[in-house]
Design a protein that fits this description.
Elements: H1 3-16, E1 35-38, E2 47-51, H2 53-63, E3 72-76, E4 79-83, E5 86-87, E6 92-96, E7 100-104, E8 113-114, E9 130-131, E10 135-138, E11 141-147, E12 150-153, H3 157-164, E13 176-179, E14 182-192, E15 197-202, E16 205-215, E17 224-229, E18 232-243, E19 246-250, H4 255-261, E20 265-277, E21 281-285, E22 293-313, E23 321-342, E24 360-381, E25 388-400, E26 412-415, E27 417-425
Parallel strand pairs: 1-3, 2-4, 3-6, 4-7, 5-10, 6-11, 7-12, 10-13, 11-14, 12-14, 13-15, 14-16, 15-17, 16-18, 17-19, 18-20, 19-21, 20-22, 21-22, 22-23, 23-24, 24-25, 24-26, 25-27
Antiparallel strand pairs: 8-9
């Protein structure tokens, strides 16, 4: 049987085996809420100057009483609504009307301080505690944050300056964060200038992110768009994300803390997205992946003006795994490195990590991908102790720019990686040329 046919059959069987393939096909229509109130009823003033934190807190507290009566909607009309951080409740729809703009306070005293996540052991920027996200949900069910393209503006410049000057007291807040929650929908909104992450779902299940726009300045330090983190059954689709660092990043905990918490990110589907990442990757996996990342399908993505297209990051001490990941139907334009897999990337939260906790990176499939004006086709650097295995490349055509190496052999750089390829231009490195006829799923950990 011809090699190309064997490769195609193996690939098709593997794709059908994923649990992630149909996550976005589930019925995600928001529940109709029988009760609705306006933030105006709680004394909020939309002049862009009056602090409305107490109004949002009081409104959510009042709407808790409707949780067993079909839930309720909190309506935010047109205006500029300045607020600090506040919590949501279960069976709630937070609806932002067109021309409603939430402005995040630039006074740190308006942001609650909370403990670090147990799978991280510290904040993302500093040891110790962190600022709570602007809009926060903890152990909730059936929550919708949506609108008629309203806007949530994190006014992140204040936080970026403090990060760059090393004057933060605690780790930066995110714009929206759900922790240990189920059945979450975020849709039809514009997010601007997140201090750190834009949408962070951690320890969550059944998260649907649809028709969102998320933008920060290209110079914003380590800002990330959407971050599924130790979460399962996640759908991200029909969205446009342009960030300073990564556009979409899948994570699952940091070193010994993530290994101990042991909650993977799994069954994730990402489709029909437009992505830009100024100093990072449009789609990244890790480097904090100690709980494991598996069964991910990425398809129909448009990646442009990014330092890297698709990146897999990890390092010794992470443990965990990245496996059963399928990336296809990708269009790249003006990208530095199309594919990056680095086994020596990232730092450690503290000195307590196990240097012998080697990550597994296996069963990664990249296929049906075209690129224009690409500088480097691929860099795959595993480690001697834990090589990257079963990397499959198929039907990839990258048009290299004038900054590219003179020879096709130099367009790919490989070390401690094993895989196979078919119909790839420029021709990949030797380590990715030998076809493996037995290409089953990765061994369960």
């Amino acid at each position: 049987m011809p090699v190309a046919l064997v490769l195609l059959l193996a690939l098709s069987c593997l794709i059908r085996s994923y649990g992630a393939g149909n996550v976005c096909d589930l019925d995600r229509r928001p529940s109709t809420r029988p009760h609705s109130v306006s933030i105006l009823e709680f004394g909020a003033v939309g002049d862009g100057k009056t602090l409305n934190t107490l109004a949002f807190q009081n409104a959510v507290f009042y709407l808790k009483s409707f949780a067993d009566k079909g839930g309720a909607q909190l309506y935010v009309p047109p205006g500029r609504w300045l607020t600090g951080s506040f919590n949501l409740t279960s069976h709630l729809t937070l609806f932002f009307e067109k021309d409603a703009v939430i402005l995040a306070s630039q006074d740190p005293s308006d942001w609650q301080v909370v403990d670090p996540l147990p799978s991280y052991g510290r904040g993302i920027d500093l040891p110790g505690k962190r600022y709570m996200s602007l809009i926060n949900g903890y152990e909730l069910h059936d929550v919708v944050v949506t609108g008629d393209n309203g806007t949530i503006d994190g006014q992140g410049l204040f936080w970026w300056d403090r990060f760059n000057s090393r004057s933060l007291k605690y780790s930066r807040p995110h714009l929206v964060e759900f922790v240990s929650s189920q059945n979450v929908i975020v849709s039809n909104l514009t997010f601007l200038n997140a201090p750190a992450y834009t949408i962070h779902s951690v320890y969550c299940s059944h998260v649907y992110i649809h028709k969102v726009t998320a933008n920060t300045s290209p110079e914003s330090p380590y800002t990330i768009g959407i971050v599924p983190d130790s979460s399962d059954n996640v759908c991200i689709q029909d969205s446009s994300i342009s960030m300073g660092y990564d556009a979409i990043s899948l994570k699952s905990g940091w070193d010994e803390y993530g290994i101990s918490y042991a909650k993977p990110t799994a069954n994730v589907q990402i489709q029909n997205v437009y992505l830009k990442a100024a100093s990072g990757a449009s789609i990244s996996f890790g480097s904090e992946m100690s709980g494991g990342i598996s069964d991910v399908v990425v398809r129909d993505a448009h990646i442009h003006n990014s330092l890297s297209g698709v990146a897999f990051r990890t390092t010794k001490g992470r443990g965990g795994y990245m496996k059963e990941i399928d990336v296809s139907n990708i269009n790249m334009v003006n990208v530095g490195t199309a594919f990056l897999a680095n086994g020596s990337f990232g730092t450690h939260p503290d000195s307590g990590f196990d240097a012998n906790a080697y990550p597994l990176v296996s069963h990664i499939r990249l296929h049906d991908i075209v690129g224009e004006n690409i500088s480097v086709a691929g860099e795959f650097f595993g480690t001697k102790e834990s090589p990257f295995t079963s990397v499959l490349l198929s039907n990839i055509s990258l048009s290299m720019n004038s900054d590219s190496p003179d020879h096709d052999d130099d367009s790919w750089q490989c070390l401690y990686v094993e895989g196979s390829s078919e119909s790839v231009v420029p021709e990949p490195c030797f380590e990715l040329k030998s076809f493996e006829s037995s290409y089953g799923r990765a061994v369960a950990l």
